[in-house]
């Protein structure tokens, strides 16, 4: 498909702006460009068709099954989008006087109350823009706490070998030495190794529970106890919160701080569908270090008034103003629709769907860990590769030909030829049965026609690209033949 610049025809145009109704002002020559902007020159029809074709090439949850492991790609109810589009919410400027944004502040306050109830935490900051940003913010909280207590010798963060890849990156960004903790044969954290690694130089532990294998660690209370006894703090990666929300709370497991992905767990668009929100929640003793301004309520007539207040020993800001506030509004709408009974029901169905798929596939695909899964599970194509040369990547690419988005591949790293599947709670049994049938058929094809799978996908608009080269040498800018010295 040609780029929009390649479709451009010199002199072609359209009018999209009304006639100027104010006095035109000219700038001095030294403030003006010496060459015209390189904008594509097209008609309205051409532009409309170009972007319609692009949209047809995109794949989202509205198009079909999207079992991307550890990403919780569930359907986003349109009522959330409707709420977030209210002009009373969108036509607000973050620098307005506090008394003119009381409704928005109530939204933030209510969202904080409900999220604290779900997580077992005491305070929330909505500034972080996404999950990894939330990780970074949570670790800055831990660092601020140790610094305030003059415990600067704590320079190590313990991270399981099955962790999300952003965990060690966030630790390194905060200046910590990242120490990998091995998993045991059941897929949980090795307690003996953890106890041996935890010490007076341990700042904290980053952990996801259930972990990236989809397993709820039965030793979770012992794990957090080991870290606390060593003087460290426990950080909960909220990427897999969808499996346990309303049933068990990270705060009750012994975690001190965590982030949530509102754009995953609480149903707002994920990935290319919209902006993220990765609020950080913490226990009361850490609230004084939270970033930026937080909503509080003053005493007074008619229940008082909302205002912004800076935490006493805040380490600063990690974002602007309220954070991605409209994502918070969508998450609040989602929670209000679900209610107290609906939140745990959602988690239970997410787990049920994953268990169902796992049970229907374990006779044809290798399941490296036999522990009962939660909201996701990992299968291995290691034996398939050994017997047919068909890899996990081949299986994933073949799924595209059947209209299914591929699952996460080659993650977690401790599973060879891994395919990580998370069906979420919003998929019907019919959809799951169809996906199961397709995965079983792909395995049959691996033995009957491995060469076909090695070239998949065959029906997609883009066949199999050289992803390694694309990642290492990305081309993200169109190059005009004669523009090297443009202003």
From TrEMBL:
Domain called Glycine dehydrogenase C-terminal: residue spans: 347-448
Recorded catalytic activity of this chain's protein: N(6)-[(R)-lipoyl]-L-lysyl-[glycine-cleavage complex H protein] + glycine + H(+) = N(6)-[(R)-S(8)-aminomethyldihydrolipoyl]-L-lysyl-[glycine-cleavage complex H protein] + CO2
Residue positions where N6-(pyridoxal phosphate)lysine is found in the record: 264
Enzyme Commission number(s) of this protein: 1.4.4.2
Listed InterPro entries: GcvPB, GDC-P_C, GDC_P, PyrdxlP-dep_Trfase, PyrdxlP-dep_Trfase_major, PyrdxlP-dep_Trfase_small
Keyword Membrane: no
Record-linked Gene3D superfamilies: 6.20.440.10, Aspartate Aminotransferase, domain 1, Type I PLP-dependent aspartate aminotransferase-like (Major domain)
Cofactor needs: pyridoxal 5'-phosphate
Keywords: Oxidoreductase, Pyridoxal phosphate
Transmembrane intervals: none
One Gene Ontology molecular-function label: glycine dehydrogenase (decarboxylating) activity
KW Oxidoreductase (keyword) present: yes
EC category: oxidoreductase
Subunit structure: The glycine cleavage system is composed of four proteins: P, T, L and H. In this organism, the P 'protein' is a heterodimer of two subunits.
Function noted in UniProt: The glycine cleavage system catalyzes the degradation of glycine. The P protein binds the alpha-amino group of glycine through its pyridoxal phosphate cofactor; CO(2) is released and the remaining methylamine moiety is then transferred to the lipoamide cofactor of the H protein.
Membership in a protein family: Belongs to the GcvP family. C-terminal subunit subfamily.
HAMAP family assigned: GcvPB
Name of the protein described by the UniProt record: Probable glycine dehydrogenase (decarboxylating) subunit 2
